[in-house]
């Protein structure tokens, strides 16, 4: 049962799956490198010169990374449409090259159209990117009109090679990607449990380090869960299966996070705050000493290790009486079986282990199909019956939320297109002053800093990262160019390695990606016999100029200030938080069933957008330290609110099938204050002059009327629901102070 006994190959596979969920980065790198290598091989056999080899390599790279659709059929259509777009773009670039002013004007128009095309989805984005990049390619290799037939041939070969690699050599179907994402979720869940075992054994000097591992593990598990949710529609055969997997993934995530909180509470000398798991750098709570672990601690360590093994064990190995015995023991804790005589906090941890084991069993049933039931105990059979009843009650219907249709300059794609066109015009003028031959580097940088950005602050941070990566990449390019010399195929081999590194690291670090791009360009210049130290230094100057032009355009032309964008996204998060909270409490109060999982997913997506938009405020280079700390604190509080709202939603969806959870109408009134507070904060965010305030008062539990004689105080409502409601109420009140919302004194 110990992880050390698992085969090395299996452990390595799980480690890779956890570090690269779905192997998306690995697939992107292999596809791009494979397409380039195949194109180079075909062109070399056809006797192409170095210039056309470089052009073919760049075209193969563009044809591969530009296409982002998830379905293979849609990818094939976009690739087929991309070839005539590429051929037309390079032809116009070569024809307009002698006419400087006309060529520059057309380039600006092309840039506008390429960015505006994003409004048409992945296909519009891909075709715009192909058109821009192939125009740039022609400028880079200095193609003349007389060389167009050979250039057309190289680009056609590149697109065909990209198709062969995409659909035959490195295929990736939605179902296959989803399967690998599931494996990544299992691996990351196991890593989080390992971090919880570390917390169990951590001494006073290790707490900060272990808490960072716990925070990272929790965040990575949530990231993978969101990735799975985004792929469910394409990767599952029907909506019912998709909703089943979505439900089981959400259950497992919530159970794992709850187990971490229970363990943190049991080890803390004071009440542990949920915020501790969500605020990076937050001081760890003081811990009780664990110098001499007692029998209960050893038992808990054993059970956490068993839970991790249950999660990691492949379906083919997940049979046998030993594993069934372990599973039965853990599930028994849900029914108070064999709970050790210890403190109430530690008993809660054992119950949390039982809930996590149930979530793991449900996840295995959803992902791996029917399980062996021959060794089930009554507790295991009850858990299995609950899961089967929940599965049967899942409704595949999905309500589509209508979205506001923006028009004109209010549409983000239109605004971005205008900004990029203005910034590119400035970059062309400034770039011509620096170099009449290599001005296009400034335009490329201006274009890139606008990709996937929506505010001036995001563009500033991206421009800074690109410049930093370029500076270090120039140094690497100088070294590599000196080592390679005139060895053409050695240079191409290094180019392939750098391209793989570029695509593999792109989602992790934009600075690293820029570093590999610049180092690769040094080798390409060597191949084209245009390499010199002055050329690489010019690359830095053009990059700085392009970034500056992009920032100026973003700041002066239809600007979207970071504060405005974060406030808009914050308002959306608060709106989604109200939807989830009201929907869950309404169902827990006896209201009709609602699509709570999808509503919770909308909340997670909105929170993810806000987290990305606050990066300029939380970046290490920002001089406003107090503002940075406030942004981090607000996002962490919202993550805490989202966790409790997700937990309420998951509990509410158990109502039809769970024997120990029943509706209680009193909850609807108890949560009104929390909802009013969220709406008050949202109103203040939308208009800082709004006359609103946040109310405080007695705890949620005290607002519930005592139960009938002979029943517990809370009737049929579980303590877990009350704890989530109280923590949510506290977190919402906590949001008021950093956002400047007045807090009213409790009414007597």
Automatic annotation (TrEMBL):
Protein location: Cell membrane
Name assigned to this protein: FUSC family protein
Organism of derivation: Streptomyces griseicoloratus
Main location (coarse class): membrane
Domain of life: Bacteria
Gene Ontology CC terms, in alphabetical order: plasma membrane
Keywords annotated in UniProt: Cell membrane, Membrane, Transmembrane, Transmembrane helix
Lipid bilayer topology: Multi-pass membrane protein
Membrane-spanning ranges: 33-66, 73-94, 100-117, 124-145, 151-178, 416-434, 440-460, 467-485, 491-508, 515-537, 543-560
Record-stated family: Belongs to the YccS/YhfK family.
Integral membrane bound transporter domain sequence ranges: 427-552
